[in-house]
Amino acid sequence: MSDEREKVELEEESLLAALSSQNMDEFREIFLEQHPYDQAKLFVKLEEEDRITVYKYLSPEEMAAVFENIKDDDDQYEMYLSEMDPTFAAHMLGEMYADDAVDVLNELDKDQVASYLTIMDDEAAEEIRELLHYEEYTAGSIMTTEYISIHANQTLHSAMQILKNEAPNAETIYYIYVIDEDKKLAGVISLRDLIINEPDTMISEVMNERVYTVSVAEDQEEVARKMKDYNFLALPVIDFRGHLLGIITVDDIVDVIDEEASDDYSKLAAISDVDSNDRGPFTAAKKRLPWLIILLFLGMFTASLIGRFEETLDKVAILAIFIPLIAGMAGNTGTQALAVAVRRIAVGDAEEQSTFRMILREAGTGLITGTICGIVVTLVVFVWQGDIFLGILVGISILATLTVATIAGAFIPLIMHRLKVDPAVASGPFITTINDILSILIYFGMATLFMKYLI
User: Fold this and answer.
1) CB within 10 Å: which end of the chain, N or C, has fewer?
2) What is the membrane topology noted in the UniProt record heading this document (predicted)?
3) Does residue 261 belong to any structural domain of this protein?
């Protein structure tokens, strides 16, 4: 691993030296030998002056391969394109796979998009226009129209000729889709089938008519789940009449999974975008403040609840010592249950029966953990304070709050899922604050009821 890293570092140094000395031939020789992902990694590290030099050294087609592998913030695309000559940028976008070009153009203003499409090659522009009108985060928005299709009344020999001719421009060649005269999807044939069968065999004899498809309006998370479940390399996208519109490849799904995971993690952490490489603290603060303000008011509500039990605290001041313990335990167990619930929803296991079983299981888990923790804390408080009634009060409060918090942590995201709200919005801080409120109510409610045993 260290040898590979040293090699990469040496290549980067050589490339930077070639840029500095304006040695185009040396730069191209080293740069074009690298994988496009490594090219993109180097590109995003460059200063603007060096990037402008790179645009001069590479063709639009070579630059397209770099752009397809950039994993930087989406808002950086506009900056990179603004540095390029508009004609160069338009031709580069036209050389990219259509779905990747759409991802870039979706980050730009409509006027900029229209300008690039006008300059671009007509055929490439038309492909991109077809994809741009699909709603974001749907199958249509991530599909590509660069696939290979054939007809059922052809022989494998003629299909192989089509494959050879169209393969350079296709995003994948492992599946070849069979369509009828109306461009409706009729079947699929794999590259293996083309190779192992006799050349004069008809496509209709070897094609698989049972094709798993996704609707053009289907959510990208559902598409990712289906591709994961069936281990497909690509999935065809159809409209409501069964016309083949495009395909979604596994590399696009990897990006979707990464994007959705980052989005869910951001919401669980109450951050608008955990992957954002913010340029400064003001940008980061602007993105985090909305959730923090909401949590601030919830926290103030929690404080006001404690104030309502001021009389109880005045009589038994030692109760205040255990507030952080009970609230913290409730928040922790609620977050654990939340993680289980969100994960179950994410993998599509949120049917009514499995949901009921999960809530029962979490309730049982909360009861068991609450009982054990309650017994432990009762003994500790008794040994520490010498007051068995105080120990029992704290122990029962722990039992009740852990049980309720576990159920709440599992139930809230499920309710949100039923209401068609992203369950990840029930973030860790949100669940923690809600459980703080519940734990305070339980703890001081029980203390007030059993006050005579504590005084």
Assistant:
1) N
2) Multi-pass membrane protein
3) no
Say yes or no: 287 and 341 in one domain.
yes
Domain shared by 365 and 441, yes or no: yes
Please name the amino acid found at residue 161: Q
Q: Are 283 and 440 in contact (CB under 8 A)?
A: no
Which H or E run contains 436?
Answer: helix 428-449
The answer for residues whose C-beta is within 8 angstroms of residue 205's C-beta and 6 or more apart is none
CATH classification of the domain holding 121: 1.25.60.10
CA-nearest of 270, 231, 238 to 253 is: 231
Name beta bridge partners: 247.
144, 236
Same-domain check for residues 439 and 369:
yes
Distance CA 321, CA 455 (A): 16
> Residues 17, 20, 23, 24: what is their CA dihedral angle, to the nearest 10 degrees?
100
Do residue 100 and residue 155 come from a single domain?
A: no
Say which amino acid occupies 226.
K
Q: Rounded to the nearest 10 degrees, what angle do helices 122-132 and 110-119 cross at?
A: 150
CA–CA gap between residue 418 and residue 412 (Å, rounded): 10
Q: By residue range, what is the domain housing residue 101? A: 2-133
E-assigned strand segments in 180-255 = 185-190, 214-215, 234-238, 244-249
Exposure of 31 by Cβ count < 10 A (0-12 exposed, 13-18 middle, 19+ buried)?
A: buried
Strands 234-238 and 244-249, sheet pairing: antiparallel
Distance CA(360)–CA(353), nearest Å, equals: 11
Give the contacts of 446 (CB within 8 A, at least 6 positions apart): 393, 396, 397, 400
Given a contact cutoff of 8 angstroms between Cβ atoms, the answer to whether 295 and 429 are in contact is yes
pLDDT in tens, the chain (455 residues): 456 677 777 888 888 888 889 999 999 999 999 888 889 988 998 999 999 999 999 999 999 999 988 875 556 888 899 999 999 999 999 999 888 898 889 888 888 899 999 999 888 898 898 888 888 888 998 898 889 999 989 999 999 999 999 998 888 899 999 999 888 999 999 999 999 999 999 999 999 999 999 999 998 888 988 888 888 889 999 998 899 999 999 888 887 877 766 665 555 555 555 455 545 566 666 666 666 677 677 777 777 777 777 676 666 677 777 777 887 788 778 777 877 777 676 665 555 556 777 778 888 888 898 899 889 988 988 888 787 888 888 888 888 888 888 888 877 777 777 776 666 555 566 677 777 788 888 888 877 777 776 65
